[in-house]
Design a protein that fits this description.
single chain; 346 residues; alpha/beta; TIM Barrel; ten-stranded mixed sheet; two-stranded antiparallel ribbon; 12 strands; 16% strand
Length: 346
């Protein structure tokens, strides 16, 4: 007898608990380690907005719209037009399937997002930005990771919730948004009810961002460069990076505001804009700080990050071949303060 969609989804979620890849338990072995089982928690209200979208049928409509942008692929501003559903590889080096590199407690986020138990980080393979200084180049450029199904990804999300992590965080999600929403719908049927984070390099399509309104609870965009002419040298020729990133971040701000809203010190909604300080101010930190103040507001949560280190092919692109100095980082903080930014966090 044919199963209804709801019965099918429940069967997928139940089966995922015992799913294996290459003989290893997907959740218990492939992504092992970290927080113990503490049970799912609800943060910042009884129901996530993505659950309301699913109940109304709107999330299914958004899912269809996202898949329409997938083949040919116009998910990101590169507009490469790859027929990914037919196996053609896009500019991101991803075809019809997707890979997950790792999943588990992530303590590399800002304090209100990582909390005491950690964020539920899901590191997705491949990337549409392809920075020459990428610190996760094995994942982003080489595509290391395990091929994963929607049902398996839903099971990972539910397992992160079960273990008591504060949220589920998609890291480098831009090129995989339709897959993520399909997996999310399965996870919702299985009881997912924690905040969803979207951790991105900000080379995102405005159309896709609008389709995520109400789906994402916390945005973590990294605004890397303020000058597109500079950016194109270091982002695999990404055209008009600064223009597209600014538009995407302003849309994120429209959806969730510029400040992180918290309960008990743990974020459940909002945004933090990240900016990596680079040697000789290649990223334009002074321009970035003034842009945030004028376009988003001085109360916007901002993380001025000082951890740049030369990785991957950075040695080929001086001055990216060195770390930043303490003087460069201190100057970056002064620019943020002079712009009037009052919510600097890390």
């Amino acid at each position: 007898m044919a199963l209804s969609r709801r019965e099918f989804i429940k069967k997928c979620v139940t089966g995922t608990a015992a799913a294996t890849l290459g003989g290893a338990g997907l959740v218990t072995n492939l992504f092992a380690g970290g927080a113990p089982d503490r049970g799912g928690v609800q943060i910042g209200g009884a129901t996530r907005r993505y659950i309301d979208l699913e109940r109304s049928g709107e999330l299914e409509r958004r899912e269809r719209a996202l898949w329409d942008l997938y083949n040919p692929c116009y998910l990101c501003p590169r507009l490469c037009g790859a027929k990914r559903s037919s196996g053609e590889v896009g500019a991101c080096s991803a075809a019809s399937s997707f890979r997950v590199a790792s999943a588990g407690p992530d303590f590399g986020n800002e304090a209100p997002i990582r909390g005491v138990r950690g964020s539920g980080g899901i590191f997705l393979s491949n990337c549409n930005l392809l920075c020459v200084f990428c610190q996760n180049w094995q994942i982003a450029h080489r595509g290391d990771g395990r091929q994963t199904s929607h049902a398996e990804l839903a099971g990972i999300m539910l397992d992160l919730q079960r273990r008591g992590l504060h949220n589920v965080s998609f890291i480098t999600p831009t090129h995989l948004v339709p897959h993520l929403v399909s997996a999310l719908r399965i996870a919702i049927a299985g009881g997912l009810n924690v905040p969803l984070c979207y951790n991105t390099g900000s080379y995102d399509s405005l159309e896709v961002m609008r389709l995520l309104d109400g789906v994402v609870d916390i945005y973590q965009p990294d605004f890397k460069f303020q000058d597109s002419a500079v950016a194109t040298r270091f982002l695999n020729g990404a055209p008009d990076y600064a223009l597209h990133a600014a538009a995407a971040i302003k849309e994120m701000h429209r959806q969730v505001g510029g400040m992180l809203r918290t309960t008990g010190g743990i974020a459940y909604r909002g945004m933090v804009v990240r900016h990596l300080v680079m040697p000789e101010n290649l990223g334009g930190t002074d321009v970035f700080a003034r842009w945030v103040a004028s376009e988003l507001g001085t109360d916007t949560h901002v993380n001025i990050m000082g951890q740049y280190r030369p990785m991957f092919r950075a040695h080929e692109y001086p001055p990216l071949d060195r770390r930043i100095t303490s003087a460069e980082f201190n100057q970056a903080i002064r620019w943020a303060q002079e712009a009037g930014l009052v919510n600097l966090i890390n």
